[in-house]
Amino acid sequence: MTKIFLKERKVSGDFMIASFLFEYPLSEKNDFIKPGEFLMIKNRTEPVLAKPFSILNINRKGFTMLIKIIGRFTNYLSHSIPGEPFFFRGPYGTAFEKKLDMSKTMITVGGGCGAAPILFFNNQYPDLIEKSIIGFKNEQIKGLIEINEAVYESESGMTVIDELDKYLSERNNSEYPNVLACGSFGMCQALHKHSTERKYQLFVSLDERMGCGMGMCKGCPIKTKSGIKMVCKDGPIFKSDDIIWEW
């Protein structure tokens, strides 16, 4: 595993922004990780497996992640001191660009921590983004990062699906849009149902618990029309109509 150092971390409610420094900076022209791929991160004292995290942004000196504090490791990280060493391996997973038609513009949707890979994608490919909708249950995230395209359900009463439906109703384009979404399984499943009603092509990046990140432990299965796939190895991005959602 490769050593990194915690640069800083900011906590607001259940969310955290954590920045890390590489032990050895990357070269100037380095395509180290792409939107859709993820890293497995751990430290040497917590008796837990490495955990998967998406990148919010990266430069040659280090990277930043948007994390929801939901378990032992993330709780430990939320109290860690700058300079503490951590370790990562990867990247793993399939980059979004390998499954998307990168010649077409798209609508991107992120929910909660699913905002991280979507914002990373938006920043990497700004000319491809027709519209972006980033949703949160409440306004905790405002204490950490400014997201212009954010919607807060506690403030507006609208979910990302409500916002997407409103946008599609007002959209002046006869072509069916392509939508890329990342969020909880429940959000992605609800978006799939919406996509069948509103006739758009939906790709989902699934947020699943993982053991190894490489497909060896078989801990993150998803049933598809072509058989059982591993979210970590075969995904995390899938065409939503390829997934057997009721499995």
Task: Summarize the entry for a quick read.
This protein is 20% helix and 34% strand. By secondary structure, it is an alpha/beta fold.
How are the SSEs ordered, and which strands pair?
Blueprint: E1 2-12, E2 15-22, E3 38-42, E4 51-54, E5 57-58, E6 62-68, H1 72-78, E7 85-92, E8 106-111, H2 115-124, E9 129-136, E10 150-152, H3 153-156, H4 160-170, E11 178-183, H5 185-198, E12 201-206, E13 221-224, E14 227-230, H6 231-234, E15 237-239
Parallel strand pairs: 8-9, 8-11, 9-10, 11-12
Antiparallel strand pairs: 1-2, 1-7, 2-6, 3-4, 3-7, 5-6, 12-15, 13-14
Can you describe what's shown?
With 247 residues, the protein is an alpha/beta fold. The chain has 2 domains: 2-92, Beta Barrel (Elongation Factor Tu (Ef-tu), domain 3); 96-242, 3-Layer(aba) Sandwich (Rossmann fold). Helices cover 20% and strands 34% of the residues. The protein has 6 helices and 15 strands. The protein has helices at residues 72-78, 115-124, 153-156, 160-170, 185-198, 231-234; strands at 2-12, 15-22, 38-42, 51-54, 57-58, 62-68, 85-92, 106-111, 129-136, 150-152, 178-183, 201-206, 221-224, 227-230, 237-239. The strands form 3 sheets. A 7-stranded antiparallel sheet has the order 4-3-7-1-2-6-5. Strand 13 (221-224) and strand 14 (227-230) form a beta hairpin. It is globular. The protein starts with a strand and ends in an 8-residue tail after the last strand.
